[in-house]
Amino acid sequence: MSAGTGSDDANEYTSVELMICQAARLIEDSRTVFIGYGMPQIAAILAQRLYAPNICQVYEYGAIGPEVATPFRRNMMADARNSHHAVCWTNMTTMVATACAGFIDYGILGAAQLDRFGNINSTMIGSDYRRPKLRFTGSGGGNEVASLCWRTIILMQHEKRRFLEKVDFITSPGYLDGTQNARERAGLPEGTGPYRVITSMALFDFEPESNHIRLIGLAPGVTEDDVKDNMGFDIPVKDGLEQLEPPKQSELDMLRNVIDPERVVIGKVKV
Amino acid sequence: MGTEIIESGEGEFIAPDPDRARAWMREHKSRELKSKVMSEKDAVERFVKDGFYLSYDLSSMVRGPMALEREIVRQRKRNLWIAAKFTLLDTTLLVAGGCVSKIDVGFAGLGRTLFSAIENGEVEIIDWSNGALALRHLAGAMGVPFLPTRALMGTDTFKHSGAKVIEDPFTGNNICLVPAINPDVAIIHVNQCDEFGNSRVFGPSVSPVETAMASRRVIISAEEIIPTEDIRKRPGQTTIPYYLVDAVVHVPFGAHPGTVPGLYTYDTAHLEEFFAAREPDEINAYLEKYIYNVADHKSYLKLIGGPAHLEKLTQDEEYKEGYYL
Questions:
Q1: Contact across the interface for B154 and A173, Cβ inside 8 Å
Q2: Can you tell me the distance from the alpha carbon of A164 to that of A232, in angstroms, rounded to the nearest whole number?
Q3: Residue B4, exposed/middle/buried by CB under 10 A (0-12, 13-18, 19+)?
Q4: Quick one: CA torsion of A164, A166, A172, A177, rounded to 10 degrees?
Q5: What's the N-to-C CA distance of chain B in angstroms?
Q6: Tens digits of per-residue pLDDT, B118-130?
Q7: Which residue of A has its CA nearest to B177?
């Protein structure tokens, strides 16, 4: 975020580092957390190393409660490092059932686009499904995570082209059309849905009356106008806006020296 | 008569036919304890046909059936419809080899080659989710026409899938049904198996049992062939019983350039070489070098560096705990 000399101190950090640190601080200890690909993996490892030693990470490929080995490797999923020191190894059907049966407290996902009701696109960009301008991986386990975990936390770079009134494709459900009980009416489990959105600029929750994404915290050096100028729609703002703490030296040390020294996910601080 | 369908996805799928699948399993799946060991060439020639629906377990990066996928590319199979339950390099390799016309997507990655083929309309995508594809295989494995899920509903993923929403006759709420899939052929890479196909998968997995039970033909590729007596001494370790299996192929390092957890790690340099190939001529050069101009898996292992390189991949797998007894 901050411009600077490129030295490794806490005054300088990447937008990904900022998001990962915010996410790690949100994760409560002794909870079950369904982890998506990429940034969410790093956030969960950071949380477990610094704040929540007894979280139970669960992965769709069948690992329950691993203490993921570091350093993080590119595309690391389902391998021996990711599955290390787990309490149980099982399979995908069991993991989805575990979430559907109500055992998973949090799901953490990334997104390519997000709308005002927290609906996630990770499938494609464009208006023609058969000829997308850009194609991504598709749901993966994201649809199950967003449908079945009690609370979903979403991580996304804060850009106007990503925050849209209407996303190009709803891969995974947020509050759908935003009307009360829209999820339940569709058939999704009661009392589930997006809980927080963490971006490179801010922290959001969802206004209970409208299910609309709402600004609740600002990253260091970011103004309310910065946030709004980089979204494709107007948003409510919670009274008593929180000032988010920047990444701490201890968090950055853990990220840069232990978890992701090659900076595969966290990126490099721009000089 | 019949249950009212509240909403139908528009995605194409093969209509489930449990009676036909049962009849096939009765007629064509031998219950004989006979050796099924054969070369990867013979297995793919006999059991993978153009136009088949093909399924595999886990991904190219982890315990993927890469030696069999290379053989499929080498034999220039065409118009396969594949289940990309959880995939990284698999789909890309098969698409690059021109083998694929349709992909049921759970998680489809990775690499520009695959995404360009989708964007250009060279392959058709049907979006599901990983969980939905695993469930469709479970339904096929159970011999039932569909299974319910509480996911998918309300999304475009649902709309583009072949799922349906009905009113659940027990609760009165909406419930989503996904159709069973009985793949024409499954390719599954395992840690160990015997000559009959009794197979052991060590570590977490996507859906090896469901995939093997649902599929009309099953090719097992194994790191190691072990005596049946070892299987019978520890039957709790068996993941897939023999009568599900049609062919057994012995391919040590058969998941290369991916990893078999606890045994050998990824070949990072090789993966970089693969993903660096983006333009058609670069991809063709890769396919020529590692597949078309290579006779079989044995020659492939020599080409990638032989015993010294394989030993290094084994040494570099730092975390071995929990996999082998």
A1: yes
A2: 5
A3: exposed
A4: 120
A5: 55
A6: 888 899 999 999 9
A7: A187
At the topology level, CATH places domain A15-259 in: Glutaconate Coenzyme A-transferase (3.40.1080)
Put simply, whether A240 touches B (Cβ < 8 Å) is no
Say what the pLDDT of residue A270 is: 64
pLDDT tens for each residue of B186-229: 999 999 999 999 999 999 999 999 999 999 999 999 999 999 99
pLDDT for residue A76: 79
Answer whether residue B45 shows pLDDT above 60: yes
Question: Cβ–Cβ of A137/B109 closer than 8 Å?
Answer: yes
CB A92 within 8 A of CB A99: no
Q: Does B61 touch chain A (CB under 8 A)?
A: yes
The catalytic residues of A are 60
Residue A143 in contact with partner chain B when CB distance is under 8 A: yes
Q: Contacts of residue A173 in chain B, CB cutoff 8 Å?
A: 153-155
Separation CA B106–CA B84 (nearest Å): 6
- Whole-complex ipTM: 0.95
Report, in angstroms and rounded to the nearest whole number, the Rg of chain A calculated over CA atoms. 18
H or E segment at A166?
none
Distance CA B254, CA B269 (A): 17
How crowded is the C-beta side of B168, counted as CA atoms within 13 Å?
Answer: 16
Our CA angle for B239, A90, A26, nearest 5°, is 165
pLDDT band at A160 (very low <50, low <70, confident <90, very high): very high
Q: pLDDT averaged over chain A?
A: 94
pLDDT given at position B278: 84
Return the closest-CA partner of residue A203 out of A241, A151, A250, A249.
Answer: A241
Mean pLDDT, range A35-63, rounded to an integer: 95
Nearest to A96 among B131, B318, B319 (CB): B131
Which of chain B's residues have a Cβ under 8 Å away from the Cβ of A172? 155, 157
The DSSP annotation for A172-216 comes to: B-SSTT-STTHHHHHTPPTT-EEEEEEESSEEEEE-TTT--EEEE
Domains and CATH numbers, chain B: 5-317 (3.40.1080.10)
Q: Which chain B residues contact residue A119 at CB under 8 A?
A: 155
The string of pLDDT tens digits covering residues A163-221 is 999 999 999 999 999 999 999 999 999 999 999 999 999 999 999 999 999 999 999 99
A9 pLDDT more than 60: no
CB pairs A-B closer than 8 Å:
199
Reply yes or no on whether the pLDDT at A6 is more than 50.
no
- List Cβ neighbours of B159 (8 Å cut-off, separation of 6 or more): B9, B10
Flag whether residue B314 sits within 8 Å of chain A, measured between CB atoms: no
Phi, psi (deg, nearest 5) at residue B92: -60, -45
A204 Cβ partners below 8 Å, 6+ apart? A196, A197, A198, A213, A214, A215, A216, A217, A235
Predicted structure pTM score: 0.96
Alpha-carbon distances, residue A140 vs A8, B128, B210 (angstroms): 35, 8, 18
